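User: For a benchmark we're assembling, each entry needs the component sequences followed by a predicted structure for the full assembly. Here are entry 17's components. Please fill in the structure.
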Amino acid sequence: MCRRCSPSNLIWHSYILAVLVFLYAPIAVLILFSFNESKYMTHFTGFTLEWYARLVENLRILKALENSVSIALVSAVVSTLLGLLAAYSIRKAPYLSLKLDTLMVPPIVIPEVAEAVSLMMFFYMVGAEYGWLTVFIGHTAFNISYAYVTIKGQIHSISPNLEKIAQSLGAGPFAVFRRIIIPLLTPALTASFLVTFITSFSDFVKTVFTTGPGFETLPLYVWRVAVRGRATPELNALATLMILASLVISIYYTRKIITRLGESLPKQV
Amino acid sequence: MKGVEVRLENISKRYGNTVALKDVSLSVPRGSLFTVLGPSGCGKSTLLGIVAGFVEPDKGRVFFEGVDVTSLPPQKRNVGMVFQDLALFPHMSVFENIAFGLRVRGEPEQTIREKVKRVMELVRLDFQEYAGRMPHQLSGGQQQRVALARALAIEPRVLLLDEPLSHVDYSVKVLLLEELKRIQREAKVTTLYVTHDQSEAMYLADYLAVMNYGTLEQVGRPEEIYDRPVSEFVARFFGDINIFPGEVAGLEASSKIGVRLERTMLSKKEPHVGNGVVGYMRGRVVEKIFQGPHVLLKLETDYGSVKALLPRSESSIYNVGDRVFVLVPRSGLIVFRYRGSGRY
Amino acid sequence: MKKGVRAYFVPAVVFLAVFFYLPFAILLLYSLTVPEEGFTLANYIDIFTSRFYLQVMGYSLLIAVLTTFFTLAMAYPVAYYIVFKAPQSVKPVIITLMIAPFWIDFLLRAYSIKVLIEPLGMREGFATLVYGMVYDFFPFMLLPLYAGMSSVPPSLLLSARVHGAGGLHILSRVLIPLTSSSILAGSLLVFLMSFTEFVIPALLGGVEGYTIGYAVYDLFFKYRDIYRGSALSIILSLGALLGAIMLSRRVKVVQKMLSE
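Assistant: Structure for entry 17:
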């Protein structure tokens, strides 16, 4: 009997297909129009790479890209590092778990817009110059919490006996951390780094409140162009490149982390 | 490899209101295999933690070969450990697991390789075949060997084993116990083996301590403890035993007597007291269980249930339902006098 | 406290204390202030008695409820399919494709809908706005549902089937109770995010795109009323915090029920 072509499976497969179309149709259209000769997005008149060429010459975009990448990179490193240390302290002192959670989780829960305005006022009061640093701090205040929660979730699954054995074999605290804890946390550290990077890279709300005149990130550029005018082919070209980069990250992330999650969980039951 | 003498002096440890160890003193001779036997929660793992250095005692001192190590951190004690869950490093190959202690000591690559090879030989794991494997590619028995090899590779002064065989199937367990005994003898390392399984303890131990509620109830050689247990708890925990009120043997009612199952005798005729028999009771056979060379008979008597272990040849005359006499022989008699505080 | 522990969590805690808690205290202070009047609850009273803000809040609530409902209805079968139905060979591909949009810039995804508007002959407004919200928040619903569904032992579903339970019965009595904590988590996440979201509405909603998040933005940038802006921000934050606390209680209760 053909299991895959039973009526119920047919419904399933068409449903999944429909969801995929829902998810990818807008992206596909966007990519298509990035190659469109005509400036107007009603008809596809012919293939061109002109918009990509213009993109590379657009200094404003390049500068925004540089800002976005540098902030996202530093924020991901700093927040993953601080989150890791905080999560590790709970391993050393489990009684801190609840107290530390209470302190670390609210930034994830509070609406971003509220966090953003509070930071804007704070920076105003201390007389900070709005720009790279203020935007970076805004992103990182959220990212630390995210990193902490992600890493803490996995640090629990490392048996304390591994550390004890390593210690009995002569490893001091630093050697235990470097040779046992860090390698076993690799999936969580990867997840934390990638998610905090992308969160920072694509953040708009925090950025808009904490940026200063003349300092622009990619989402700010996209916003300004997309809201004022209409969609432009040049913006489509930029979006296409960013989407491709995102897909690469996504495939890497899914391979490394998500499928492991799906495979490892049912076995434990 | 040479083991050291391990001595504990008046060790006490509390966790909040729970007393884990109460004034425990213990001496483990150099190179011997010492087993600590007790039910879960009796404090035996805490004891091991204190020897390893993970747990700081509230009171008391720990000596290795006469040197006080009480405040020495675990990484400086040179102690090999194997836990119940083995705790093999999942991200390292067999070779790297075993080499771990040597690497953190900064030994040269060539020495590490030789030592890993030697210790794998000792635990009978083929170097060529297994050195490159990951822990999850090994069977349970092989994982045990790796864990042991890793502990032995650092040439420890003391080897600590915390219920290492409790997750292993019976057939594998017998094999590993034999191996463990051989390896321990060959390595001549002082070993502290903690378990709740009396058969493991009996099989392995040169010396044995029975532990309950944070105290050592009795310490001695296995035969001593089996034949002359100091308390009802020790007698029950270390082998099976029939316990009767003292009046059966003509003692005061406040004491109890015990007879090991294999010393419990049966008779179809009413016996005479004296002549090696200190007392008897009437009973009825309710169950007959075949156990290979022996047969276990369960009986109901005026003084409650009794079990008797007879050689097969002697058991054939007793059948379920038979009325018999249960004899208490002088030679197997164990007397427990009431010690106050509700304990025997 | 064990020595050395402090050094590990102090950097993170100090960072949040200075750049999260302190700014929030300032926000709270402003929300309780009216110039030349001193401390007062007037800003809060103003918001709660203003027809305008109540209407915008109601409108944003409607958008959030619809977004949560549609993403849940769409993502739940997908999570089920990935975990229990998908053929092993295509499983990784499907997972990757379903989760990939999560990695694409939030704003770009909303923008891609905007690009669709013209060729499809749609117009900016409420429907397009909700469509864009569902499109953008779908991965945030799918991820927790997928994680929750993965921890449901397949043997449980099988045994329910063996005992003669029908499809609907298994769904309502076995699957939904077992995944209820991830349903709650995903729903709360999407609800909170969509309630205060204002980028998507602004981009796709046209004149119908004015939401409560936008109102905060306007209070600060257009009307320069930081006092009322602060009060509105505090109201939204407390609401979110309350929701999260209720959720975590609920999740604990459910977990307890399951373990018994």
